[in-house]
């Protein structure tokens, strides 16, 4: 979510902060309320009147905003908060879920790259007249022209074991029989 810098939004935000402050003032007056004392009753009535005016002004200002003009809060996050859970838990779980999905996608990309290289090696062996076309397709799909780590975002020392064709050159693949493609 990106911050919204519209004057109407900022006004509503400030008014909501004012309502929170007014609620705090009402809480203070209620906790120190003396039923027998006349000043306590008047002060509490004034605080409630101020709270009512603040709520009315928030409603008026918020009604003037266009529908959907505010930030979009995910429904699942709203449910977390309504159920009394910490929104930081939602954020942590979301980040972990995205990380797992990224790892899965990275694994699929590596598998397809390995399949591409095996297929290219087999096609080169079976159809030598298509070697130039196969080479262009492999290069167009991110093979042979780049180092393995640069192609898929992995750097040296990322903990992965060397893949097929390791040591066979820049993005090369060792075909069956030891021939480097």
From TrEMBL:
Q: How does it assemble?
A: Component of the Mediator complex.
Molecular function terms, GO-annotated = transcription coregulator activity
Descriptive protein name? Mediator of RNA polymerase II transcription subunit 10
Organism, as annotated: Phialemonium atrogriseum
One Gene Ontology CC term in the entry: mediator complex
> Which keywords does UniProt give here?
Activator, Nucleus, Transcription, Transcription regulation
Protein family according to the UniProt entry: Belongs to the Mediator complex subunit 10 family.
The cellular location(s) given in this protein's UniProt record come to: Nucleus
